[in-house]
TrEMBL record:
It comes from the Eukaryota. Belongs to the mTERF family. The keyword Iron-sulfur does not apply. One of its GO terms (molecular function) is nucleic acid binding. Keywords: Transcription, Transcription regulation, Transcription termination, Transit peptide. Coiled coil: none annotated. This is Transcription termination factor MTERF5, chloroplastic. PANTHER family: CGI-12 PROTEIN-RELATED, TRANSCRIPTION TERMINATION FACTOR MTERF5, CHLOROPLASTIC. It comes from Paspalum notatum var. saurae. The lineage of its organism: Eukaryota, Viridiplantae, Streptophyta, Embryophyta, Tracheophyta. The keyword Transport does not apply.
Amino acid sequence: MASSFLTYFYGGRSSALPQLGCAVAPVGRRLRPRDRKRVELRPDCRSCTLVRRQLPLCNAQSYADDLWVAAPQNPASVRSRLLAAEREEAKAVLSLFLRQKGLRSTLAARIVNKSDGFIEHLVSKLQIAYRSRYVGGRELSTPEIRDALLPYLEALSKEHGDSLVEVVENFPDPCSMEREALSSSMVFTPTSSNKQKAIARISMPTSEGALPELVLYLLDLGMDHEDIKNIVRRFPAFAYYNVDRKIKPLVELLLELGVPRSSIPGIIKKRPQLCGISMSDNLKPMMAYLENIGVNKTQWSKVITRFPAFLTYSRNKVETIVSFLTELGVSKKNIGKILTRCPHIMSYSVDDNLRPTAEYFQSIGADAASLIQKSPQAFGLNVDAKLKPITEFFLAREFSIEEIGIMANRFGIIHTLSLEENLLPKYEFFLTMEYPRSELVKFPQYFGYSLEHRIKPRYARMTGCGVRLILNQMLSISGIRFDEILEKKRVR
């Protein structure tokens, strides 16, 4: 495991380890007998110094000795050394997984460093998976650790989707869920036996020959049996929820809020965790808090239908978002409007999404506070992958940075549009209409109209009548008003 430590801290390359007289075993392998005499933690050896620095809980030299010496060891000392090593290995696996999911290395490292609780959780899963190895005081190899943890992390990713990072950072209390739901859903099962048991629970008839009460209730609600199985595959704890204590109270609340009965199965399918949240301790107090900061209580039906996860976020998460919006200059009234109209903003990270996006828009002269009210969805986009290419598209066509900022202020969603499917074809047609470029700066909403169903037909009618209208007038007025203007100008 010392080799695992050293390889981890030298970027995962054993070849990068300093070779100043010390033998380092490849990851997952023990030192050969003929190498034993070469292994000693010398004061002038960078490898040895690194081991000493990274193993504050034990004597570094005796840790190296553990790699081969068969002499009796203090069990408690051995376990503490193994745990220290497994923590670092778990961090490395989590960082690797987050990078595989597309996060930058610096961001992945920051998340890992803020997730001590989740790291301990991963280590406990290793202890469960390899119980006999721990009893014998034997170390795990890096491949064994990865083989155990990566499938578990993948399962969590499928279960929590975009909320995975929040689950990791806030463990053991992600999304203010009840501990009961959390512990059931996060049991480590390399063989997926718990998932299979959960699916069997909602698939097999009872002793009386009927389907389980949970299944019967959800079928009556309008959910398909296969949909129920899919929920349980993603969230096994759902199979054990009590209908009277968990499911019915949520359904009754949703109906009370005005959610159509036909929409409730879709809400449960999207966010089954809602059923596990305490109505009195979490859900209703959170609703009261959100209403107090401006969420329109008459719009709860639309908010929950649009984004069922909205009520599963922690109070701390909500306060962080609200604090940022206030700092940006958004009024309390408008904060409520933003959360009501675009509850998805709650899933955005302040440090990784909202703040960098606001700073970028400000750098091109756009009003970030106004823009987040017009187009909050733009603040969930990656600056380098999505926002900058839009700006560069217009810069390449000789628009100034000031003009691009004006266009963003006037048409907030312009940076959310597709280059290939929207901006490029519409800009090419714009050039054929022989309008000056300033028309687009004045009316960037042009890019929001359908090219085939609005722009081309109206332009054809306008030119066919021998009439010339400004871009705004040609597109924004109603069909009846458009015909009236064409007729009036043609008569003249």
